[in-house]
Amino acid sequence: MAKHNVAQAGFKQDRQWNWKNYWICLGIACGQLAFGYPASIIGVTLAQPSFLIYMKLLDVTVDPPALASNADSLIGAMSGVFQAGAFLGVIIGSFIMDRYGRKMGTVFCATLSIVGGIGLVASVNTTMFIIFRLIAGAGSWGFLALTPVYCAEIAPPKLRGFFVGMNGMGITLGYSLASYMGLAFYYAKNPSTQWRGPLGLALIFPVFQLLIIIWAPESPRYLLMRGRVEEARKVVMSIHEVKGDEDQEYARGEFYQMQKQAEFDRKLEPTYKAMFFKKSYRKRTLLACGFAFIGQSTAVLVINNYGPTLYAALGYGTLDQLKLQCGWITMGTPANLLGAVIMDRVGRRVLMLTGIFGCCACLIVEAAIIATFATPIPAIPNTAALKAGVAAFYIFLLFYGCGIDVAGVVFYSEIFPNHLRAKGVAMSIGVIALTDLIYLQVTATAFSHIGWKFFLVFIIISGLGGIVAFFYLPETKGVPLEEIAAIFGDADEVMVFSEDIHVDHNTHDLVIDTHTGATVDKKGRRSIEKAEDHVIQRVATEAGHPGHTIEEKDVHVDEKSIAGR
After folding, report:
1. How distant, in Å, are the alpha carbons of 342, 527, 528, 532, 534 from that of 2?
2. What is the residue-wise DSSP string for 133-145?
3. 57, 126 in Cβ contact below 8 A?
4. Strand pairing partners for 441?
5. From CA 380, how far away is CA 163, in angstroms rounded?
6. Cα(502)–Cα(471) distance, rounded to whole angstroms?
7. Does an H or E element contain 392, and which?
């Protein structure tokens, strides 16, 4: 046996940048603004006295004004129903994505977001607000599950971390915009405008996505799964064209790999049931859902939604609380950008583990500071300790954004096979929503009864979860989606390996070496073995024969290879 020379035989994966591909992925990733902004704007809305008065949640007939008797339960419903809508959005959305495509999935999510958004702006009572908050939540969470899949399926393998990672930046940018718009509209003279205005701005983002899909192509992998080969070929050759390469070795090789894999995947059962009854699929599902649970068990949403409360516990006044909270949320965008930029170099596994353990360490520091210097708040506070507590929150978000948020969204979108990808990501996002819903429901009660000790719950879960993740998380950096199965022990389900594809620059034909063996460890390292007398299949494509597409009749065994055996 002889080691295969990947550098010579593999198509050139180091030349995968295409500006059209980048702008398309960026436009699709902006769909996360349609999640991040509506998800965060509720905190600002519930802080507006004008909203509370209009909805009869704040009684101003007494001095001082006080919350109505049913205010706590209604406020909790207004906040929590958004997460409840996630299950409607991600589950139905996954079926629409598989049946009608990623573009139609965008239409579904945008429609729900627009209908929900209009209803929220027009709300005249709490019942109407809660109903349309549920609908808006379905659309927003649907986007959270949709756009990473869409981006992953059109991104090149070597740049997939960056292209899909832009989704994480969209989420945090949405959070930031919500905070600043809420602060800006606070100064509006019309009380109704103070809360209806920020809610209305949420309509911009789903409308923008409807405009984007007019220009963006359908996922070529979806097209191939539906048997629309020629449409898929045109998309791949358009967005993965490499200037200066007359043979277009990368795009042609990638499309051939996609086509052959789709032919196999179309025969498999695309159901939620299948995700649990096959060992390798079950492992992928548990890894994705497990990491989703651990990521939310770092207390990130607790800090996000109860930030001012925590800053108050550290002794800061109201104005300082708002400033610190805005600064904290803004920190998420550069953190996600950093993760997206370095992910294709350092890998997913390193970032994900660093994120978990980094967040856990910050929570330990934070709990110790609050317990020692802010329980109870002393008459003369320890300024240095309070500043350290704020710094711990900010460093926490750096770890979370760079390691859990952006790396997680990439990981969920790439470990599932073609026929289960939409459903796998939907299930992962569903776990995030359920985990958030549970934590948010108990947080207020927990802080009022046990205070800083509530952080111990998150410290224990994230610490133990990080240890488990260390032993089981695989590395998927640079691996084509069609080859992910090999990492989970299903190398026999990979129809073509990219290492086996190259172009004969004399004939301009695409050449496929017969694959006789490969091992892929959980860190993504591949060892390719070839028989010295291997068979070569020669595939005639459009570069060798202009206007010609790949068909089964184009594949034949190279005569010289047989003669040499």
Report:
1. 34, 11, 9, 6, 10
2. HHHHHHHHHHHHH
3. yes
4. none
5. 49
6. 35
7. helix 383-399
3-state secondary structure at position 565: coil
Backbone phi, then psi, for 509, in 5-degree steps? -85, 150
Task: Calculate Rg over the CA atoms of the chain.
Answer: 26
Cα torsion angle, 193, 307, 55, 50, sign? negative
Nearest to 524 by CA among 479, 472, 471: 479
Q: What is the pLDDT of residue 473?
A: 96
Answer with the residue of higher pLDDT: 105 or 531.
105
User: Tokens 């549920």 map to which residue?
Assistant: 134
The answer to whether 507 and 534 have CB atoms below 8 angstroms apart is no
DSSP-assigned letter for residue 207: H
- The token pair at 290 is 């497990």
Residue 13 per-residue DSSP state: T
Burial class (CB in 10 A: 0-12, 13-18, 19+), 525: exposed
Torsion of CA 230, 231, 233, 236, to 10 degrees: 180
What percent of the chain is predicted at pLDDT more than 90? 59
* Beta strands 555-557; 536-539: pairing state: antiparallel
Sign of the torsion formed by the C-alpha atoms of 477, 478, 479 and 482:
positive
CA distance 33 to 212: 13
| Nearest CA among 168, 172, 167, 176 for reference residue 327 | 176
Distance CA 545, CA 554 (A): 11
CB 468 within 8 A of CB 290: yes
Strands 2-3 and 501-504: unpaired
- Please state the length of the chain: 565
H-only helix segments in 69-203:
71-100, 102-121, 126-154, 160-185, 191-201
Residue type, 308: P
Q: Where are the beta strands (DSSP E) in 457-517?
A: 501-504, 509-513
Residue 82 identity (one-letter amino acid): F
Q: Which residues contact 5 (CB under 8 A, 6 or more apart)?
A: none
Max CA separation in the chain (angstroms): 98
The whole-model pTM stands at 0.87
Give the torsion sign (CA, 51, 54, 55, 56): positive
* Integer angstrom CA distances of residue 181 from 2, 196, 267: 62, 11, 49
pLDDT in tens, 272-300: 999 998 999 999 999 999 999 999 999 88
Kind plus residue range of the DSSP H or E element containing 393: helix 383-399
